[in-house]
Design goal:
This protein is 47% helix and 14% strand. It starts with 6 loop residues before the first strand and ends in a 6-residue tail after the last helix. The chain is globular, with a radius of gyration of 15 Å. The chain has helices at 24-36, 58-68, 85-99, 113-122, 136-139, 141-168; strands spanning 7-12, 42-47, 76-79, 103-107, 127-130. By secondary structure, the protein is α/β, with parallel strands linked by helices. It contains six helices and five strands; from the N terminus they run βαβαβαβαβαα.
Length: 174
């Protein structure tokens, strides 16, 4: 299939605009992932589905951006199905176990990174934080603070779900 993978940069999706173009956040995440891809054998795993059948998936849009930036399609892996962060964590976790990279880097907006790293850790994947340029200036401080608060609450909720599933040995939700 593939040779050894030094770094696997997992890029978490964000909104796709009504015209099918990436949001500023999605562009920033892909651009940041390219910057993080310093090792010679770096692969990308893009994750994010869609709930609107008239729009491309977040993963499809990120794939297009990576290809336009000169990334070879053989190093891009996709999860087009996951529609939320926890589903992405579980799906990407399964893919990561098959790909066996030396290092996993979680790439997203800064408010989202702590949640991703904790959730990956809970499912047994030691992911590193992929810090990219902050989107606070583009988003606005008030909205950014709202995103931070929402992600803190979501972290508590997701951790409770993962721990409950581990304790009861229930299969993860998809």
């Amino acid at each position: 299939m593939h040779g050894p993978i030094d770094n696997l940069v997992v890029i978490f999706g964000s909104r796709v605009m009504p015209d099918g173009e990436p949001s500023g956040s999605l562009r920033r995440r892909v651009s940041g992932a390219k910057t993080l891809a310093q090792a010679p054998r770096t692969h990308f795993l893009v994750t994010g589905g869609t709930s609107d059948p008239n729009l491309p998936t977040e993963a499809a849009v990120m794939t297009r951006l990576l290809l336009e930036a000169g990334v070879h399609e053989s190093v891009i892996h996709r999860d087009d199905e996951s529609k939320d962060t926890l589903a992405s964590i579980y799906t990407c976790g399964s893919m990561i176990q098959k790909l066996k990279p030396s290092r996993v880097i979680a790439c997203s907006d800064r408010y989202h990174i702590p949640r991703l790293v904790v959730l990956f850790w809970l499912i047994g994947i030691p992911a590193k934080a992929g810090w990219i340029q902050s989107g606070r200036a583009a988003t606005g401080t008030l909205a950014w603070c709202g995103y931070c608060f929402r992600d803190m609450v979501a972290l508590i909720y997701d951790v409770a779900i993962v721990v409950f599933q581990k304790l009861t040995k229930k299969a993860p939700r998809s």
